[in-house]
Amino acid sequence: MNKNALVGAILASTLGAAVFAHNGATGLVMDRMNGMTAMRDVMRDLAPMMQGSAEFDVRAVQTAATTLMAHAGDNMSKLFPEEPIPAASYAREEIWRDWAEFASLSEDLRTYAMGLAVAAPNALTTPNPSVDLSTDALMVDHSAMQMAPAHEAFSIAQLMGVEPLRETIRTTVPTASGATSETALAINFAMMAADDAFEMVSQTCASCHAQFRRGN
Questions:
Q1: Is the dihedral of CA 127, 132, 135, 139 positive or negative?
Q2: In this structure, what are the phi and psi dihedrals at residue 122, rounded to the nearest 5 degrees?
Q3: For residues 77 and 34, is the Cβ–Cβ distance under 8 A?
Q4: CA atoms of 169 and 166, how far apart (whole Å)
Q5: How far is residue 53's CA from residue 140's CA, in Å, rounded to a whole number?
Q6: Three-state DSSP class for 170?
Q7: Could you give phi then psi for residue 214, rounded to 5 degrees?
Q8: For the segment 149-200, what is each residue's pLDDT rounded down to a tens digit?
Q9: Element of type H or E holding 187
Q10: CA angle, corner 71, sides to 102 and 30, nearest 5?
Q11: CA proximity to 73, closest of 16, 113, 119, 30
């Protein structure tokens, strides 16, 4: 399956799972539904650009990434205190049974959305590693991102695009003896095509919905 088809399939799953009526929801349930709706709309609007069927707009992508960041990480998880699930809610009890996984996915979404903002100037092209990586070459317009709070894991220079933003992911790999060990993979979002970062956002949303949201 080519990249556009993969992104389309993931996005279709993500948007399909996010289509809902508010069903009289109030309070925190309404707040988190509104947040999910905002993210759904952002993903829907970005999809044509990421699939190459609409003109790529760097500012629009960075603004959309800001919206995703605003509804991810702690801003998402704090809307899910352990409580009886109201009939209006689409949340599943698995959220609280596996809180570490849910919180991790929420933080992954925030990180990958930030990565999408950093990768946005690359559009659909993976940069050539041999190009100039000076400060001037990496500077991007983040004026649309002022509302997004800086996370302590990243320096101001990284958030402004002066230093490449990296995210370390730990993964399990087999060893020669047949056992497994953990290794760290560093992702440099400044050297990533925007649609690749978008795919990471989409996969995170789809994974979260599959595990923690009831209904289709």
A1: negative
A2: -80, -10
A3: no
A4: 10
A5: 24
A6: strand
A7: -85, 155
A8: 433 444 434 444 444 455 554 434 444 455 544 444 468 999 999 999 999 9
A9: strand 180-188
A10: 90
A11: 113
